[in-house]
Design brief:
The structure holds two protein chains of two kinds.
Chain A: E1 2-6, H1 9-13, H2 16-29, E2 37-41, E3 53-56, E4 60-62, H3 70-80, E5 89-90, E6 97-98, H4 105-108, H5 126-131, H6 136-144, H7 147-157, H8 169-178, E7 185-190, H9 199-206, H10 208-222, E8 226-232, H11 236-251, E9 256-259, E10 264-273, H12 282-289, E11 313-317, H13 318-330, H14 332-336, E12 346-353, E13 359-364, H15 369-376, E14 386-391, E15 397-400, H16 410-415, E16 424-429, H17 434-448, H18 454-471, H19 477-493, H20 497-501, H21 504-512, H22 514-521, E17 537-539, H23 549-553, E18 559-560, E19 568-569, H24 579-583, E20 589-591
Parallel strand pairs in A: 1-2, 7-8, 7-11, 8-10, 12-16
Antiparallel strand pairs in A: 1-3, 3-4, 5-6, 9-10, 12-13, 14-15, 14-16, 17-20, 18-19
Helix pairs in contact in A: 2-3, 6-10, 6-13, 7-8, 7-10, 9-10, 9-11, 10-13, 17-18, 18-19, 19-21
Chain B: E1 5-10, E2 13-18, H1 23-29, E3 40-42, E4 47-49, E5 58-61, E6 68-69, E7 80-82, H2 86-101, H3 117-124, E8 144-145, E9 149-151, H4 161-169, E10 176-178, E11 185-187, H5 204-208, E12 214-216, H6 220-228, E13 233-238, H7 259-269, E14 273-276, H8 277-300, E15 310-311, H9 316-325, H10 339-355, E16 362-368, H11 372-376, E17 383-384, E18 387-388, E19 392-395, H12 396-405, H13 427-430, H14 437-451, E20 469-476, E21 479-487, H15 489-500, E22 508-512, H16 531-546, H17 557-567, H18 573-579
Parallel strand pairs in B: 1-7, 13-14, 13-16, 15-22, 16-19, 21-22
Antiparallel strand pairs in B: 1-2, 3-4, 5-6, 5-7, 8-9, 9-12, 10-11, 17-18, 20-21
Helix pairs in contact in B: 8-10, 8-14
Classes of the chains: A alpha/beta, B alpha/beta.
Chain lengths: ~600, ~600
């Protein structure tokens, strides 16, 4: 019997280490330490319900486990074979408990390729990776295929870059392989920076060897003997596990010289990023690794021509690499049978926002937003109405009800005015003000622009200022025109992907929620009631009994009135803190 | 070898260009003018600044999703480019409005007004208003005043030209981009002041800055007030490179020599004595040439305490550079002061005595092609009881401004001659203004002093030219003297590193901080990277030399007289006291506040 405990950053923060320790102590107390193994794995994905403990072989899925539950799990489940009912997942729709993860809505429609080992193996033990066919793909490639044959497999599989751009991976490798040089590099882009996204982190925390193996395969294909992982220093657990994995791989001769006795040499080093979003852009990433300012440069030359230290360099994202060993082992045809015509395979998304099942999912391309949000995601929190979903991170777009049945793939999302990005998916409900949402994302891109090119450096700031005017009720219809022109020009003229996409939240909300902008500008109203400046607190004289509770609690003395007579709020003084509403027992205060 | 070429279509016109050509250059070949702002091409230095940052030069390329920066995008076979479509024009205007929305509007008092690339571009693109300016936040920074250069980086547009000059050309490394996003700006590390950075004040950043973000410290007001003060006797000295470039500020052809008009203008402005730094250059040769011979002779006689090569020390940017970067070699440069400082020292002693005045009653002004000279004359070791040998140093540009302000019709001025005694100079003094000139002047004198024979030919053309690092061997009557020359601090660094590692073996080395020497100095009329202008100035310098009746420093009769009457002989105790200096290590740790 195995007890798997999620050792991802999220569950660790909720004391999953202590759960594991307690379980071990309990097992030893019952002299079961040899029969039952406690294993810390990578992320299960269902972060909403973490920490997760999964029991094998019966697949029992315990949610929101606390250290003090350890004793009951051991005494009841392990010893007596009775499931701990209260820790089982309850299907919110059917109100019934589900024992097995395979039957949970969250997992039913998922298909795990990149995440195949996350939540199954101990990422700090190379033997467990090898037991699940680990390094077989590398062995196969080195002994059976030429570099070009391997590239052809990746090309045929239809794998496209998972970092956001969607460039065909096999083609990228082929270009790098054809550029002759005395030294080439394979770079893994682990500078995941979208707010709320943690796909790459989870892969590195849960299955670091899959990335190492793929980088070696890539090195063989393009003729590089050196790999670099550019990873943000804010990912200490991923760094730790990656380091352990690299050491173990070296120890086993799977990195280093003469791998599998084939004469192929390959080794990997880590490079740390300081967390600048723009360093996820490949030229900026390379400059940062070179010790230069982390800012992008004009392409061409592409990294495949002149990259790290001026040498041909192939940069792929973590998730892209994680797919590679599976493709080699199961074949290009298998992979390309999954997905849509131009987007093959699966995609990992980080579900966040006003959704019931927050977490990490992997789904086949072509699944609809509706399936993701309402089936896997379990619908909108608190029974509220779905309003929009932002895909592609801060530079993606807001998609609405009308896009829910669009099959998700690279091209459809772009056609809908958003993008795949690295896989962030933030769901919004009826309470979200779309102007404020656009402003929120612009705040991020203003902060994260490197400042090299003028449209991104100054333009995004001006977009933000315009949005702020609008949310304050100072906007004009002319401002909406300016927003659109500015957004279009910033996209059209910016140097790198950051500026070329940063106005997307503005443009997509202008397209899909124009009426909300107009409401802010013309009616000076925020339909969602989110924009403080546009709210007014009023007391209904009919309902007010003059109890003075509101006036006594107002921090700025904006409320006046005699005892037992209706009170009034002075809007010039009111700071819209909401303290009065909370105190009023007669529902006499409302927001207009 | 046949060059691979590319055929493409720009604005419906076919053009064939060598592979690697940018759209901007291909369009230029067709006579199509694409506006560029951050782009700068210093062709002869082999340096191009094309960060593709301003995005003003964008064009439409068929099949490309977004607009392409023409300055940095290479032509591809069959490419179809449109340079002035509505989409492009709208984008350019919008981008320009954005840049201007974060730029101060104080053109009235801006030192760059009238020759500001940003101002010109605003005119060119027809910008009449900046939408939303009233609520647009501006990025603001601390103003930085150094002795030579003022950084007003509120005006920085992130073109990165200064960064290219400071890092790629000069390898000084004082300026680079800091901060990110809206607050991104070019500054010394940790946004320290220039004075705390390894800046050499060479002024090449100022020379290329398109806006008023980097300007020289202006001393013209102080000069006017000194002249207006009846208790002061105001002397002016003019550096050799000034006369070869000043005319450009008045619309004259580059390379026009305006020595006589310049002297006349300075008299009209009201200077009491108009002297020539060239006189002091001759004096420098006497001291430096003697020092070279002294070191050489001792070296050849096996004196192990003698260090060779001897390095010239007349360029203050270069002095600053080795004080920062070659602190282990501070005893290698000649101890001779620069001509500017020798002039000041002699003016406030020898000449003051002649006038019967105290040094405090004299004000010495220098007109220099250089910004580092402003710093040099403020150095403590060049002061006497707090009174500097040279009071103010103004640049060629500042002098041009003064001439215009005094409403002097420069072009029509009659030629006038310098005053005596400190205005007489030889051709050797003049060529100090061009790279290779100092060492040529030194060789002319050292040869005759060493061999006691007249030179068979005066022109050492092997020492001239524009190549960054040059070397030549001069036959001193059987003794081969190896000479190295570098101009531009990046080249100087290379040469010095070779000397340090023992790879290079020279007896004497001349270094000038600015590309081309003083004629390309940071205080000269802006050449906007056009090296044809630098070459024309260089030709003018050698023309002036060729036309001089005396062309060897030691034959300058007033120099001879100065030694007879006052100094004794070169490197005498008095000469040592007045005309020689020493160097300091400026290496320092930078602390973050």
């Amino acid at each position: 019997m195995h007890l798997l405990i999620c050792g991802g950053t999220g569950c660790k923060a909720s004391a999953s280490d202590a759960i594991a320790e307690k379980l071990k102590t309990e097992l030893e107390g019952n002299n079961l330490q040899n029969e039952v193994q406690v294993i810390m794995t990578g992320c299960f994905g269902f972060c909403e319900k973490g920490p997760i403990v999964k029991v094998l072989p019966d697949n029992t899925f315990y949610t929101q486990v606390k250290p003090e539950d350890a004793s009951e799990i051991v005494k009841e489940h392990v010893i007596k074979g009775r499931k701990v009912e209260r820790l089982l997942y309850v299907d919110p729709a059917k109100k019934a408990t589900i024992e097995d993860s395979k039957h949970m809505g969250f997992y039913r429609k998922q298909m795990r390729i990149a995440l195949r080992n996350c939540g199954f193996i101990n990422p700090e033990n190379i033997d467990e990776y090898i037991a699940r066919e680990g390094y077989q793909a590398l062995g196969k490639v080195l002994t059976e295929y030429t570099p070009q044959q391997t590239i052809d497999i990746i090309k045929k599989s239809g794998l496209r870059g998972r970092g956001g751009g969607g460039f065909p991976t096999g083609l990228k490798w082929e270009i790098a392989s054809k550029n002759a040089a005395d030294q080439k590099y394979v770079v893994c882009n682990a500078d995941e920076g979208d707010p709320g996204a943690f796909m790459d982190r989870s892969i590195l925390e849960g299955d670091p060897h899959s990335v190492i193996e793929a980088m070696a395969i890539c090195g063989y294909c393009i003729g590089a003997n050196k790999g670099l992982v550019y990873i943000r220093a804010e990912y200490p657990l991923a760094i730790k596990r990656l380091k352990i994995a690299i050491d173990q791989a070296r120890e086993y001769g799977l990195l280093g010289n003469d791998i599998f006795g084939t004469g192929f040499n390959f080794d990997i080093e880590l490079r740390y990023g300081a967390g600048a979003f723009v360093c996820g852009e490949e030229t900026a990433l390379i400059h940062s690794m070179e010790g230069l300012r982390g800012e992008p440069s004009n392409k061409p030359p592409f990294p495949a021509q002149s990259g790290y230290m001026g040498k041909p360099t192939n940069v792929n994202n973590v998730e892209t690499f994680a797919n590679v060993p599976a493709i080699i082992l199961k074949g290009a045809d298998w992979y390309s049978s999954i997905g849509t015509e131009k987007s093959k395979g699966t995609k990992v998304f980080a579900l966040a926002g006003k959704i019931n099942n927050v977490g990490l999912i992997e789904v086949p391309m072509g699944i609809t937003l509706r399936e993701v949000i309402f089936e896997i995601g379990g619908g909108i929190k608190n029974g509220k109405k779905f309003k929009a979903v932002q895909t592609g991170g801060p530079s993606g777009g807001c998609l609405t009800e009308k896009h829910l049945d669009t099959p998700i793939d690279f091209d459809n999302l772009i056609a809908a005015g958003s993008m795949m990005g690295s896989g962030g998916m933030i769901v919004m409900d009826e309470d979200d003000c779309m102007v404020s949402v656009a402003k929120f994302y612009l705040d991020f891109t203003v902060e994260e622009s490197c400042g090299k090119c003028s449209p991104c450096r100054i333009g995004n700031k001006r977009l933000y200022e315009l949005l702020e005017r609008i949310t304050k009720g100072d906007g004009t219809m002319e401002d909406l025109e300016r927003l659109r022109n500015l957004s279009t020009v910033i996209k059209d003229t910016s140097l790198c992907g950051l500026g070329q996409t940063s106005p997307n939240p503005v443009l997509s909300t202008l397209d899909n929620f124009y009426h909300e902008y107009v409401a802010h500008v013309v009616d000076k109203k925020c339909p969602s009631g989110q924009c403080k400046s546009l709210m007014q607190y009023v007391i209904d004289p009919e309902a007010c009994v003059g109890c003075t509770a509101c006036a006594r609690n107002c921090p700025v003395n904006a409320i006046s009135g005699e005892r037992k007579k209706p009170h009034e709020i002075n809007p010039a003084i009111c700071i819209k803190c909401g303290a009065c509403i909370e105190k009023c027992k007669f529902d006499a205060i409302s927001i207009k | 070898m046949t060059m691979e070429t590319i055929k493409l279509t720009i604005d419906n016109k076919q053009v064939e260009v060598p592979k690697g050509t940018t759209i901007y250059k291909a369009a230029k070949k067709l006579g199509i003018d694409i506006p560029v702002l951050c782009y700068m091409d210093l062709h002869d230095l082999g340096v191009e600044n094309k960060p593709a940052g301003c995005r003003v030069c964008v064009v439409e390329v068929e099949g490309r999703r977004n607009l392409a920066p023409s300055c940095a995008t290479e032509c591809a076979e069959g490419m179809v480019v449109k340079t002035h479509t509505t989409r492009v024009i709208n984008a350019r205007r919008t981008v320009m409005e954005l840049i201007l929305s974060d730029h101060p509007k104080d053109c009235l008092t801006c030192p760059k007004s009238g020759r500001c690339d940003l101002q010109n571009m605003a005119v060119k693109l027809g910008i009449r208003e900046i939408p939303g300016q009233e609520y647009a936040e501006m990025s603001t920074y601390k103003k930085d005043f150094s002795p030579s250069i003022i950084r007003d980086v509120d005006k920085c547009i992130m073109c990165r030209r200064c960064e290219t000059m400071c890092n790629t050309v000069q390898t000084v490394g004082a300026l680079s981009a800091v901060n990110r996003g809206f607050m991104a700006v070019v500054a010394p590390a940790f946004e320290q002041d220039l004075e705390k950075s390894p800046c050499t004040y060479c002024g090449q950043c100022v020379a290329v800055c398109p806006t008023g973000a980097l300007t020289e410290v202006d001393h013209t007001t102080k000069v006017i007030r000194a002249i207006a003060d009846p208790t002061k006797t105001v002397l002016v000295q003019t550096a050799p490179a000034v006369r070869a470039a000043l005319g450009e500020e008045f619309g004259m052809k580059p390379g026009t020599l305006v020595t006589g008009k310049m002297v006349a203008a300075l008299r009209q402005i009201g200077f009491d004595y108009v002297f020539d730094t060239d006189f002091a250059a001759d004096l420098t040769i006497m001291e430096e040439g003697t020092e070279l011979l002294d070191r050489l002779t001792r070296f050849l006689n096996g004196d192990k305490s003698v260090k060779l090569p001897i390095l010239t020390s007349c360029c203050p940017g270069w002095v600053n550079f080795f004080e920062h970067n070659f602190t282990d070699m501070l005893d290698v440069p000649s101890s001779a002061k620069s001509p500017q400082q020798m002039f000041g020292a002699i003016a406030k002693s020898y000449f003051a005595d002649k006038l019967g005045k105290k040094r405090e009653e004299l004000v010495v002004v220098s007109v220099m092609p250089c910004l580092a000279k402003k710093y040099e004359c403020q150095r403590d070791e060049f002061k006497h009881d707090g009174n500097p040998d040279v009071d103010f140093s103004i640049s060629t540009r500042e002098l041009a401004h003064l001439i215009k302000e005094f409403n002097i019709n420069f072009e029509d001025l009659p030629d006038e001659d310098f005053d005596r005694p400190l205005g007489e100079s030889t051709g050797a003094g003049v060529i100090f203004g061009a790279t290779g000139g100092v060492i040529e002047a030194a060789v002319r004198t050292a040869y005759e002093l060493y061999t006691v024979k007249p030179l068979p030919k005066i022109d050492f053309t092997e020492l001239r030219g524009m190549e960054g690092i040059r070397s030549a061997t001069i036959d001193f009557n059987g003794l081969p003297i190896n000479i190295g020359i570098a101009h531009g601090l990046g080249n100087a660094r290379k040469l010095l590193e070779d000397v340090r590692s023992g790879k290079a073996n020279y007896h004497a080395i001349e270094v000038m901080a600015c590309p081309g020497g003083c004629i390309g100095g940071g205080g000269q009329p802006l050449h906007h990277g056009n090296s044809a202008i630098i070459k024309a100035r260089m030709e003018a310098i050698y023309r002036e030399d060729a036309g001089k009746p005396i062309r060897k420093s030691h034959e300058n009769p007033y120099i001879v007289k100065l030694y007879e009457e006052f100094l004794g002989k070169p490197m005498s105790e008095k000469a040592h006291h007045l005309l020689h200096t020493h160097y300091f290590s400026k290496k320092k740790d930078i602390y973050i506040k």
